[in-house]
């Protein structure tokens, strides 16, 4: 399956587009590749691109007042990537988006997507539904961070995405869960999902 077909398959469960709309939507996505540890979006820059991940792992993080990196989200195949709030509002990002591994994407610019939205209201509906699913995930994650114990956060991660243990360095997973690396290591050795 070629990259544009993979994007199309990803979109089908979100919202159906007519063939003309899908063709126009897919036409604005271009291949883009990056090496490991490449910054795609710097804090303070406005996100100009929306990415569809074909290969690799990326993370979005912010710097705490003490200068530590706090991981917000990971992206990997097949999902959208980019600093969503900066992209949608075209305001400076408060986050850094970087590749953790060599990565390949399809990407489109804000300008290209904006032009499509003016011509195809059904693509606007697709974007709205996709954004709603992202918001749902963000709110669920906020509850986890606020109320779950370290072990519950760890169990939830393993239930939802067990493959990340092999994809993402554990120090970044610990940061994502809001726990220190030593606690993460203890949980890794003691928690069983059954």
From TrEMBL:
- Molecular function terms, GO-annotated: kinase activity
Instruction: Report domain Cyclic nucleotide-binding positions.
Output: 13-132
Q: What is the lineage of its organism?
A: Bacteria, Pseudomonadati, Bacteroidota, Chitinophagia, Chitinophagales
Q: Keyword Phosphoprotein on this protein?
A: no
Question: What keywords appear on the UniProt entry?
Answer: Kinase, Transferase
> Which species?
Cnuella takakiae
Which InterPro entries has this protein been placed in? Answer: cNMP-bd_dom, cNMP-bd_dom_sf, RmlC-like_jellyroll
Q: Which Pfam family is one of this chain's hits? A: cNMP_binding
Query: What protein am I looking at?
Result: cAMP-binding domain of CRP or a regulatory subunit of cAMP-dependent protein kinases
